[in-house]
């Protein structure tokens, strides 16, 4: 395995509307916890994201942090130009930071948003170019990741999907609370 895509819920699907929301910390820790063994044991060299708000940008931040200790690269392949233009300013700022530090950046379509077909095309491209996926998704809480999952299930070949689900996030919270006596989390 060389190329891993990471995707999942958008921030609004998780009811996260503030970049200071404490839940982001736990999501990033869950991504880090799943990503490090994939880099160390499976040889992941590239992490691919489409730069969507939420899971993908947080994963981008994690990869940029891990680059200090691992030979790993980040590619941001957007479905269309200027996807961030309708986002809040702080989301746009995070997007620009991640894109600016990525090892590779490109848009699949050299046009702005035209329709949902661009997201379908993005999903197919990522499935073709990736060896596996790390997906923040829980079937009990549907959201936009279900469209990618449906497309992945159509694949003839074996395409590993590593899930981060709600119980994984709960485990991260427990671990951090147990290992830090002064840590408190107010949901």
TrEMBL record:
<protein>
    <submittedName>
        <fullName>DUF1273 domain-containing protein</fullName>
    </submittedName>
</protein>
<dbReference type="Pfam" id="PF06908">
    <property type="entry name" value="YpsA"/>
</dbReference>
<dbReference type="InterPro" id="IPR010697">
    <property type="entry name" value="YspA"/>
</dbReference>
């Amino acid at each position: 395995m060389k190329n891993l895509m990471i995707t999942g819920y958008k921030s609004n699907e998780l009811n996260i509307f503030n970049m200071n929301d404490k839940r982001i910390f736990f999501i990033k820790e869950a991504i880090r916890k799943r990503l490090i063994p994939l880099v160390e044991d499976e040889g992941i060299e590239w992490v691919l994201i489409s730069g969507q708000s939420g899971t993908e940008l947080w994963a981008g931040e994690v990869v940029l942090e891990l680059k200090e200790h691992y030979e790993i690269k980040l590619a941001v392949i957007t479905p269309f130009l200027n996807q961030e233009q309708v986002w809040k300013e702080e989301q746009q700022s995070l997007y620009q930071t991640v894109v600016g530090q990525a090892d590779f950046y490109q848009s699949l379509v050299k046009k702005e948003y035209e329709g949902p077909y661009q997201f379908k095309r993005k999903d197919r491209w990522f499935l073709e170019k990736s060896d596996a996926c790390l997906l923040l998704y829980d079937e009990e809480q549907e959201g936009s990741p279900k469209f990618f999952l449906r497309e992945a299930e159509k694949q003839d070949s074996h395409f590993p999907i590593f899930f981060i689900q709600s119980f994984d996030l709960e485990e991260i919270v427990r671990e951090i609370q147990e290992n830090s006596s002064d840590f408190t989390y107010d949901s």
